[in-house]
Each structure stands twice: as structure tokens, then as C-alpha cells.
Amino acid sequence: CKRKYWKNVEKGVEEWQDLIVETLYTYVRDEISHSFDVNADIITSKASDVLKHKTGMCHAKANLLAAMLRYAGIPTGICYERLSWKYGTGYFVHGFNAVYINKKWVFIDARGNKEGVNAWFHDGESELASYCKKDKDEYFFDTIYVQPDEAVIDCMNNAETLDDIRNSLPDKVR
Predict the structure, then answer these.
(1) Contact indicator for 109, 65 with CB cutoff of 8 Å
(2) What is the per-residue pLDDT across 58-93, written as a single tens digit (0 to 9) for each?
(3) Residue 10 has what pLDDT?
(4) Residue 76's beta-bridge partner residues?
(5) 149 and 80 in contact (C-beta within 8 Å)?
(6) Diameter of the chain by CA atoms?
(7) pLDDT reported for residue 86
């Protein structure tokens, strides 16, 4: 008899988590502009600043989403992948999140959609904004971090312009 009730509670928690993740994820993805997409004149890194100014790079948006999901009681981490710059040369680290729901980690990327980018989360499944291309020496950092990388945060905090970010965003995390 007790197992029957526990299964209902467990099912309810899983459905609740999916709904909360999808709602907050969609809000950050769609309502917070990616700084490069809108050529923002302000650089944000802290979750509260991202929320206040409604703009942030992938890293800043990941910080905001982590804060919101953690506040809702959903275990959330920060993840990175090394990608090549679309315009220009060199590499940078792209930031996104991982959430622990339905007894597994799911990667979610609230970078923001645009032409050629269609990231989503629904019913515990997701699609990232970008994937590593091994032939371009891109790769996923195989760690879910509790806190954002210090060098990434320092880069955002010290930058005054988007060009500062382009010129100093690290290409690896510690």
C-alpha cells in the first residue's frame, strides 16, 4: 500500500520538475537577449544583473538559469564546450547548464535561438544550441561544475565591450 502512494508522489515530483525546468529555461532562452545577437552595450555576469538588464552572453544566461533553478530546488550545474569562433580565428568556451531531473543529468542551453540555432527542452529531453565538431578541434569539458569558471567570470567582469570579450574569453576551463 505504501509503495502505491510513493509512486504517485515520485511521479508528481518528476512532472513538477519538468514543468519548472521548461518554464524557467524558456524564459531565459527567449526573454533574455544574447549580448552578441543584440550588440549589447553592457556586459553582465551576475544573475541579478542579467535579469535587470535582460541581456547576457551564454555564460551569464547560464548563471541566471542556474540561480533560478536552484532556488526552485532543482540541482543545476554549469557546463562548457570549446568551440571555434564563427567569425575570426581561435577558440572560446561556450557555457550552458545541466539539470538533474528524472534521475538523470540533462544538458540544457539557454543561449537563445536565432537562424541556425534551435535549442529546446521539453519532457526531460533537450537540444543544445551547438555541438562540438571534432574535425575543428572542438570538445566538451566532461565535468558539471558547481560554480562558473573563475577565468570566464573575470573576463566578463573586466570587459567593457563585446570586442573585449572576443579578445579575452578563455578557450579552456580549470
Answers:
(1) no
(2) 999 999 999 999 999 999 999 999 999 876 679 999
(3) 64
(4) 99
(5) yes
(6) 63
(7) 78
